[in-house]
Amino acid sequence: SRYGGTAQRLTGFLLLPLFARHLSPTDYGIVGLLASLPAILLPIFSFGISASIGVCYFASEKAKDRLIIIKTARVIATTSAFAMVVIVMTFLDSVTQLALNNLDYQAHTLIAIVTVALTILCLPQQLEQQFAGRSIEYVAVSLGGALFTSLSSIVTIVFFELGALGMLLGSMLGQALVWGLLLWLSYRDWE
Q1: Residue 101: phi, psi to the nearest 5?
Q2: What is the DSSP letter of 103?
Q3: Which DSSP state fits 86?
Q4: At what angle are helices 106-131 and 164-190 packed, to 10 degrees?
Q5: How far, CA to CA in Å, does 154 sit from each of 5, 11, 118?
Q6: Burial, 82: exposed, middle or buried (Cβ in 10 Å; 0-12, 13-18, 19+)?
Q7: pTM above 0.90, yes or no
Q8: Is 160 helix (H, G, I), strand (E, B) or coil?
Q9: In degrees, to the nearest 5, what angle opens at C-alpha 41 toward C-alphas 37 and 89?
Q10: Per residue in 117-176, pLDDT tens?
């Protein structure tokens, strides 16, 4: 979300002095290069869910129809995210070589891809929260995810000294938390 993304960038900026002590220029380069993967992969593997789900959702006033639309989008997102991870795992050497020009960073590449997959999985639930007018819950989840990402990154970078891998793990854990919370909110509302 806009708020979660803004909060994450702000906390990233505020944590820059701390991270600068624990991350090398190479670590920042790895994270920077892998941060470009969502810009490439999201448009391909999200299948336009962000644009099309709204059209379908608001085409009907019936709650049952809207629930079917969200569930269908969830199936599409899950299938797509799974396919993306399988494809990248199959060609992990090539993807890592292309992205980083160094096969020593395969774990980094895989974690970045899983984070993109989690982002795709979040799309239907994020849109459902927005369309249903649950802005407070949506913003709370986004801010909670940003905070958890920052805390996870601090732990993995400062205490476990994982460098770039720690930064990527923090992002993945934060995205996983957001996905879990959004799923919980969706299922809670369906009961």
Answers
A1: 60, 30
A2: G
A3: H
A4: 30
A5: 18, 11, 21
A6: middle
A7: yes
A8: coil
A9: 80
A10: 999 999 999 999 999 999 899 889 989 999 999 999 999 999 999 999 999 999 999 999
Q: Give Cβ neighbours of residue 4 (< 8 Å, ≥ 6 apart).
A: 139, 141, 142, 143, 145, 146, 178
Q: What angle do CA 16, 18, 19 make, to 5 degrees?
A: 65
pLDDT digits (tens, 9 = 90+) for 42-97: 999 999 998 899 999 999 999 999 999 999 999 999 999 999 999 999 999 999 99
Residues 99/102/105/110 CA torsion (nearest 10 deg)? 40
Query: Residues 114, 115, 119, CA angle at the centre, nearest 5°?
Result: 115
Angle, vertex CA 179, rays to CA 153 and CA 122, nearest 5:
115
Mean pLDDT (the chain) is 92
